[in-house]
Every structure is written in structure tokens, then in C-alpha cells.
């Protein structure tokens, strides 16, 4: 009977050790808003790509934009982005007009590609990273 108890105790001890933080590189929550010309960007997707040149490697994160321009990044099926530096760009179809104003807008081409964007965000550990990404249609 003692052996049986020892086996159970060992099993649950090992099981408990494995139930801590998820496996994988360190991540932290990232949420925020995308603004274009002073108004929320209501359509598109925001991407956070680890900047290898600054030592951040791993899965890219992304989020669809809500009607009020808000986003919450997910990476490799997990909430958040890798801790470190990220290049940020927006996939955004050209919109003929904004629903709220009737005026057209377009995100500049350089912010639509990982290789040309100069928007950078540092994701810091052990906190919710709140980010406001501000763009102008005419830089």
C-alpha cells in the first residue's frame, strides 16, 4: 500500500510541476488602438513581427482591428507577443470612404509591409503592453 501511495504522490507532484507557465518563449499581452489621421482605423489587421536584428526571434503576432481601431495581439495560438522588439505593419484594404465622415483615406505604403515599415514596438515582460499606433495618410 505504501508503494501505491508513493507512486500517486510522485505522479501528482510531477503533474503539478508541469502545470505552470505555458511552454515556449516568454510572451506578454499587447493591446492598443490604431489611429489614422486622428481617427480610429476601423478595418484591417495589425502585425507584430519579431525584429531579428534586435535579437527577437520567433512567431509573428497579429490581430484584426475592431470598428473602434482596437486590437489584442495573438501569436502562435497564444495571447500576446514575444517579449522584445517588433516591426509593426498594417494590412489594410484601400477604403473609398470612412463610414463616419464620408472622406476617403489610405494608409501609406511603407506601413503596409514588414520590410519597409519603420514602426517599432518593444514588448516588455510581466505587464500588459498598451500601444497606440498613430499614422498619417500624408507623412
| Overall 3D form | globular
The CATH first-level class comes to Mainly Beta
Specify the CATH homologous superfamily: Immunoglobulins
Helix/strand structural class:
mainly beta
- Main beta sheet strand tally, sense and closure: 6 strands, antiparallel
CATH topology: Immunoglobulin-like
Rg calculated over all Cα atoms: 21 Å
- By CATH, the architecture is named Sandwich
Secondary structure: number of strands = 12
Overall tally of structural domains? 1
- The number of helical segments is 1
Q: Runs with pLDDT <50, length 5+?
A: none
Classify the helix fraction into a percent range.
Answer: 10-25%
Give a structural overview:
The protein has 139 residues and is mainly β. It has a single domain, classed as Immunoglobulin-like, CATH 2.60.40. Helices cover 12% and strands 35% of the residues. The chain contains 1 helix and 12 strands; from the N terminus they run αββββββββββββ. The strands form 3 sheets. Strands 8-7-5-4-10-11 form a 6-stranded antiparallel beta sheet, with no helix packed on it. Strands 2, 3, 6 and 12 form a 4-stranded mixed beta sheet that branches. The chain is globular. 25% of the residues are buried.
